[in-house]
Write a sequence for this structure.
């Protein structure tokens, strides 16, 4: 697997038909809620006897088309659509002089942005010659995102990428990037009281959940861990000492998860505080906070490597946060 391919891959094989095929996938098969992933769909055509594994791992250079839907607001994922068009998207941008599209020529290649039925620029089409979906994703990010960033600044408006799909014509493969949807939950523990000392933690947690940027989500999770490992915990033990209460200090370790990216796995089983101090702080937090990476470069939030690094750390950060919150709640209950 390409070293930059850190997303979980799901593969689905469909028989090609005259009408657009569809399939129902149980939501629990789509991975952990809120985590970026991808779904690959392989169409079966008469005469193509290649095994699925061969088409999924083809390493030859070939054309790969990339289609991205623009959005005025963070997308809500309730289905994964493979036949997106310009009318699936929207933006606050209108093409000049009633043009139906805009064509861009950049150092990384050419792409076009077409209009929806309301005349809003809404759909990006990009094509590159490369050897895998991961490289096509990087080519799209390096070529298209800087232009989108600039348009956002010049026109003083938000521009969201609603969905991205990749068409590998040679292998009859379509790959769709998605964020695993959240599930419905039945409210329980209505009698459990809200501890006032936890209010800022819950507030910051919801801020992270509502965020569409992995950079900002990470920063919210980091701040929660910083509070819980620092002043909030210190205040609890000071209060316990003043009241002659012996608290059982939790033993916190980074736990395993089947969807953790490979570069995170070496930290499984290590103390959570050490992971926070020695990995999250220098490699991730300092870059977001100071706009400078650990090698002295500038943090580019549209740079493929930076996008992948922060997307890959969201799951482990959230796991640590939830464990730290549960442990702190237990300490507060001991005080009571």
């Amino acid at each position: 697997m390409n070293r930059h391919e850190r997303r979980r891959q799901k593969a689905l094989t469909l028989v090609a038909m005259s009408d657009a095929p569809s399939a129902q996938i149980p939501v629990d098969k789509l991975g952990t809620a809120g985590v970026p992933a991808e779904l690959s769909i392989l169409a079966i055509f008469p005469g193509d006897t290649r095994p699925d594994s061969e088409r999924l791992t083809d390493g030859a250079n070939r054309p790969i088309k990339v289609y991205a839907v623009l959005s005025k607001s963070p997308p809500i994922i309730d289905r994964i659509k493979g036949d997106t068009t310009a009318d699936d998207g929207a933006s606050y941008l209108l093409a000049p002089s009633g043009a139906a599209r805009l064509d861009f020529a950049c150092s990384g290649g050419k792409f076009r942005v077409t209009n929806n039925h309301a005349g809003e620029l809404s759909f990006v089409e990009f094509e590159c010659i490369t050897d895998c979906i991961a490289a096509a994703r990087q080519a799209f990010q390096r070529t298209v995102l800087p232009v989108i960033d600039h348009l956002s600044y010049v026109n003083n408006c938000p521009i969201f990428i609603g969905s991205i799909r990749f068409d590998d014509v040679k292998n009859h493969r379509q790959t769709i990037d998605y964020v695993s949807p959240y599930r419905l939950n039945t409210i329980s523990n209505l009698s459990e009281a809200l501890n006032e000392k936890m209010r800022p933690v819950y507030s910051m947690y919801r801020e992270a959940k509502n965020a569409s940027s992995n950079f900002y989500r990470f920063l919210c999770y980091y701040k929660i861990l910083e509070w819980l490992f620092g002043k909030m915990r210190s205040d609890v033990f000071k209060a316990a000492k003043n009241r002659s209460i012996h608290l059982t200090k939790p033993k916190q370790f980074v736990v395993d998860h089947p969807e953790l990216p490979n570069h995170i796995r070496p930290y499984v089983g290590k103390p959570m505080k050490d992971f926070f101090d020695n990995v999250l702080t220098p490699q991730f937090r300092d870059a977001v906070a100071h706009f400078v990476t650990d090698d002295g470069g500038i943090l580019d939030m549209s740079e493929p490597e930076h996008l992948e690094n922060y997307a890959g750390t969201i799951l482990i950060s959230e796991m640590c946060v939830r464990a730290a919150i549960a442990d702190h709640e237990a300490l507060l209950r001991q005080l009571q």
